[in-house]
Batch of 2 targets.
Target 1
Amino acid sequence: MTKTVNHVTKSILNVGEMASGAKLTVPVYRFAGQSDAPSVYIQANMHGAEVQGNAVIYQLLEQLRNLHILGDITLVPYANPVGCNHKNGEYTLGRFDPITGVNWNRMYHHNPDLVVPFVQDNVDASEQEIKAKFKQVLLDDIDQQLDHNMYGLTTGQRIAYQLQKMAHQADLVLDLHTGPISSKHLYCPEYARASASYFNIEHTLLIPNEFDGALDEATFCPWWSLAQAYAAKGRPLVLNKESFTVELGSQEQIDLDVALDDANSVLTYLSYKGVIKGVSKGANNGANKGEENTSEQFVPAQITRYACYLKDYKAFYSPMGGMVDYLAEFGVPLPAGEPLARILRMDNYGDGDALHYISLDKEVIPILHFASASVNQGTELYKVFTEFFTL
Ligand SMILES: [Zn+2]
C-alpha cells in the first residue's frame, strides 16, 4: 500500500516472517528527485539499541518537505524489525541475531567475481553506460540470492539483502548507527575522505577496500574494485559512489534536538553532493516562508576533524575484572600516561589495591567505551584513535 503525503511516499516492505506467521515489516519513505542528481539511501537502527538514527530520519523527513530535492532519496527507519524489538529486561539487545549469534551488520552480500568479467565485456563503454550496467549487475546478483537460491537464506540475510537491494539503487548510502557510550564518528572509505569534511562529525575512520559484511562496504567495495580495474587498463573513472556508516553517539538514547543537528550534518553533505538545494519551495507555506531555508544553513561547521586509518583504530581490553570508572573524555587527545579509567576492586580493600589506574604509553583519542561499569578481564573497555591526524 502506498500513500503520498506532500511529496513523501510511504510504503511497507516485507522482509520476513515470524513463526506465528506475523510479517516482519520495514517502513520505507521516498522523495522523488527533480533531476538526475545523485540518489540517496539512508537507513537506521540495524542494531536494535542504536535508535538515534530513527530520530535523525524523522528530522530529515521534516526538513526535506521544504527543500528542493534534486536526487531521489529513500529513508528507512527501523531497518531491522527483529533487532529493534529484541529486549531483555529494561535493555535493548539486537546487536547479534539471537539464533545464529551473527552480528546483524555482517550479513550483507558481496560477490568479488563480478568485476573482472564486467570490465572485459565493457572495456569501451561510456562512463554512463558503465554506471547503469554495473548497477544492474549488482541488483541481479542480489535478486539471484533472494529469489533463486534453492538452499535459502538466514533470517538476517533475508533482511539485509532486501535493504541492500534498495541501497544498490542509490549513489550515496548512509547507514546510521551509534556506539555503546560514544562520541560521534564516521566510517569513510579512503577514496572519499574529501567528503568527510562536509559532515559535522569530529572523528573520521578511513577504511580500506575490504569487505567484512557491513552495508557500507557491501555498497562501496564493488564500485571501488570496478574503478581500480578500469584504472589498471589506463582508464580512470569518476563514479561518484559513496557509502558511510555514521555513528551518532550512544545507544539506547533518543535526543530530538541533537537529531536535528545530525540531520543538518547529513543535509550539508547532501547539499555538497548536489542532491538538495537549500532554498525552500515554500509552495504551501506563504510567500516569504521559503526564504527561511537558505543554502547558508548547509555550510559545514568549523570544527577540528580528526581522522585515523582503520588499522590504527585500537580496542583496549580490560587487563582485569572489576568495576570501571571511565575517566578519559571522548574526542580530546589524551596524553601518554594520563589515566583512561580506574578499576575498583572492593575484594582487595584493606589487604590489597582497591584501585587500579589504567593508562597507555602513547597519545590517543578515546572514541567510545563499554556500556556497563562491571567488566570481566578481557572486556573491550575503550576504542581509541592512534596515529591520528587532522583532515
Ligand atoms: Zn551499529
Target 2
Amino acid sequence: MSHEHHGHSHSHGHGHSHGHGHSHGAGEGKTGDGAVDYAEQNANFNSEEYARMTETVPEWQAMVDAQRAFVAAQEWWSAESSKTYKTLDFGCGTGRLLCGMGARLGAGSVGLDPAAGMLTVAREHAVEDGLTSVVTFDSIDPAKDGAELDSFADSFDLVLNVLVLHHLSKPKAIVERLIKALAPGGRIFIVERADGFSLDQLKSLFAAAGIEVTAEMTRDFDIPPFNGNPATTMTAYHVLGQKAI
Ligand SMILES: C[S@@+](CC[C@H](N)C(=O)[O-])C[C@H]1O[C@@H](n2cnc3c(N)ncnc32)[C@H](O)[C@@H]1O
C-alpha cells in the first residue's frame, strides 16, 4: 500500500491495534520477518466482540483518559464550561472519546468509522450516556479517502482523529478534508503513534493546511500483550490546532 509519508510500513507491531479498514487478502498472522500482519487482525475487524475486547484493556482506557485530560486542560475548554462543541470524530472506533465529552458534546456531532462492529458498540455508548439526541455514529467507505467529509464543510467546532492516521493510505488528503470540515476558529485534535508519524510530520500536515498548532503533548503508554502482539511501550503524539477565524 502506498503512504504519502515516507518510510512507514504496517509491518511493525501495534500493541493495541483495533484493526483497520484496508482490504487485504487472507493472511497468516505474521509476516516472514515475524512482524504483525494486519490481514489476520482484519479478519476480526468488523467484529463487535473484537471492539468490546479492546475496551477490556485498562491501558487503552488510560489512553482515552489522557486524551480527554489533555483537551480539558486547555484554557479555551475550561474558559466557558457551558460551551458545547459540535464534534466530528473520524475513525471514532467505539466512540469512547466522543461520548466521554458528555454535556460538552454539541448537537449534530458525528462519529465516522468503516467498522460495523465498532459502530455498534459506539451507538450503545451513546444510548448509555444519554447522548443520542446530539451524536450519531455512521459508516464510511475506507476506499473513499474521506470523501464523505465533503458534505460537512465549515461545520464542526472540534474535529478528533485519534490513532487513525497510520491506517490511512492518504493521510495528508484526509487531514485537509478534516480541516475543511472545521468551522472558522474550530479546533482539531490529532493523536498518532510515534512509530507511525514523527512529530514533525504531524506538524507539517497542520502547516500544509494552514493550521496553527496551539498545544502538543508526547506520552508513553505501556500496552500489555494484546491481540497476538507482544507487550510494548507506545509513544503517542497529541497535537491540537486551530483553524483561522
Ligand atoms: C486504533 S483504532 C482507534 C479508534 C479510536 N479513535 C480510539 O482512539 O479508540 C483505529 C480506527 O481507525 C478506523 N479506520 C481504519 N481505516 C479507516 C479509514 N480508512 N478511515 C477512517 N477510519 C478508519 C478503524 O475502524 C478503527 O476504529
